[in-house]
Amino acid sequence: MGAMTTALPVLNAVGQGVSLFSEVSGGNSKSVDNRALQELQAKQAAQISVLQQNADLSREKIALAAAESEDARKAALRRAVARQRAKTGASGISSAAGGSSEAVLLGLFEESEAERVEREKVDNLRLSALDQDIEQQNRANILQRTQLQQRQNLSNIASG
Questions:
Q1: Nearest-CA neighbor of 35 among 13, 16, 15, 10?
Q2: pLDDT tens-digit readout, 23-33
Q3: Would you say 113 and 73 are in contact if contact means Cβ atoms under 8 Å apart?
């Protein structure tokens, strides 16, 4: 059964090749050219569709990870602020009168904000990479279609 499963695609390809050869030898090369171009376009459309779906899934994962990171950052900041306030309160420094405790808290906020900004930069780079992958595949598809059309044109000129 395993041998038949692997042989079936080969037999199908051979059958398609034989039918393609018989159409070409029968003088119907224009319809063969059109069919080859249509098959290439359908294959490329399917590839782009899969690539787009994968990119959308990756975008969702990036957004989810960003939301989780933001929640964790805020929770850590709240804990750090509470810890710092407890520490300054335990040492007898009043948070209302103490400029140094405010400076420490401000430093915590700035550090946390810098982490958020850095994470957003990385996320934006990842999103840009996804868009570039799709654009690159689109360019490759255009190149393949153009090459196929030019080969067909040269073949028609040579046979005509």
A1: 16
A2: 444 446 678 88
A3: no
